[in-house]
Amino acid sequence: MGCGNDKIKSFLTKPKARTRRRFEQLQEAEEQEQNQYNSKTRYRATILGLPRPIDAKGIQSTDNGEYIAYVRIRIEELDNGKPSPDTQSFDSKATLKSIASHRWALVPIEHNNLQLGEVYEVEFDTPAPIRQPYPPKIRSFVGTNTVFAENVRANIDSTTAAGRAFLGGGFSSLSSYANDHPPKERDYYLNGNQNNMITIKNGFYNTWPRDIRNYYDKTATANVGPNKTAQVISYESTVADGNFLIAHPQYNFASNLVQFATAYYKKWGHGLRIAGGGRSYDKQAELWAKFQREGYPIAAKPGKSNHGWGLAIDIHPMNKGSEYGTDETKWIIANIGKYGFDNVEGKNLSTPEPWHFTVKASLRNGILGPIRSGGQ
Ligand SMILES: [Zn+2]
C-alpha cells in the first residue's frame, strides 16, 4: 500500500518539481536579461523626422546651450514590438499617435544637420526601463538606413498637417535653410563689460549663454490694488516659441514687461495680451515660408528679426493689429517707453506692424554691438 502511495506521490510531485524548476530557470533568465537591460544607458536609435528648436516643445536644454534641438527617434531595443513606421501608412492621426510613443532626443550642436533615417547612439541619464525624467541625448553617428528613410517618406502624407508636423515643418533642415538665409551676428557684452564680448546669432538663442536670456512669466500675476492680485499677462502666441527677452545687468526687460503689464491692468482692468516674444531661427523660417506662400502674417527673413535677438515683443490688445489706434493702444504707445520699449519699428509705414514693440534703440546699442556678418 505504502509502495503504491509512494508511486502516486512521486507521480504527483515530480512534474510539479519539474515545472517549478523550469519556472525558476525562466525567471532567472528573465532576471539576467532584465539586469543587463537595467544597466544599459546607451541604445541605437533611428532618426524619425527632423530636428526642431528645443524651446518650441517646452523641453529645456539641460546644459548651457549644448543642446539646440530635439528630434523624434525610434529606439530599436526599447521599441521592440511596436509598429514600425516604415511598414504602415501615416495619413491618420491615430497612426501618428502610435509613432509618438517613440522618444524625443536632445540634439547637440554638432549634430544639428542630422537627417531622417540616420542611426545614432543615444544616451539616457539613468538605465532603462526606470522612468526617464529627461529625454535621451544624441551621441555618436552610427550609419544611415536609406531604405528606412525612403519608406518613411513614402508612407507619410506630407499634404496633411499631421504629416508635415511629423516630417518637421516642411523645410529640409535647420542648417541647410540657414545656408540661404544666414543669421545675422552681433556682439554681446557679457555683464555689460566691453572687454568681455561674445558673438550671438539671430534666432539661435539656444546656443547663447543661459544668463543672457530673461524669461518673462506668461501668466504673471501682480498686486494691482489693495488686497488684490490679478493675472497681468496672458500669452497667446502662434508666432513665437520663446517668452524671452535679452538680459542685461542694467536692464531687466522681462521684469520691466511685467511692471508695464501691471500698470496696464491698473489702467484698463484686464491683462496685457502678448502675442509674440523671442523667436527661434526655425520658427522665423516657418513664418517666412508662410509669408511667402500666403502673404500673411508679415515676417522678416529668418535670421534677421529683432525677435530672434530677444529684442521684440508683439502686443495685441484686441488680438487684431488693425484695431490699433484705440485709446487703449494709444496709452500703450505713450507709456511703454518708461519700461525700455518703443514702437518705432511698428510705426514705420514700411513695416505695418503696430503691435510690434522693440527694446529702445538707445538701449539696444548699449547691449549689442553692430551687425557683424550675415548680410541680406
Ligand atoms: Zn513683431
Task: Please outline what is shown here.
The chain is an alpha+beta fold and 376 residues long. It is 32% helix and 24% strand.
Could you characterize what this model shows?
- It is a single chain.
- The chain is α+β, with helices and mostly antiparallel strands and 376 residues long.
- The chain has helices at residues 2-38, 93-100, 146-155, 161-167, 174-180, 253-268, 281-294, 327-335, 344-347, 361-367; strands at 42-53, 67-75, 104-108, 118-123, 137-144, 185-189, 197-201, 213-215, 221-225, 228-231, 233-235, 244-246, 272-276, 312-315, 341-342, 356-359, 368-373.
- The chain has a five-stranded antiparallel β-sheet with strand order 3-2-1-4-5.
- The termini are far apart.
- The protein has two domains: 42-170, no CATH class; 180-373, Muramoyl-pentapeptide Carboxypeptidase, domain 2 (2-Layer Sandwich).
- 32% of the residues lie in helices and 24% in strands.
- Residues 56-64, 87-101 and 169-173 have low confidence and may be disordered.
- The relative contact order is 0.11.
- It is elongated, with a radius of gyration of 28 Å.
- Bound molecules: zinc ion.
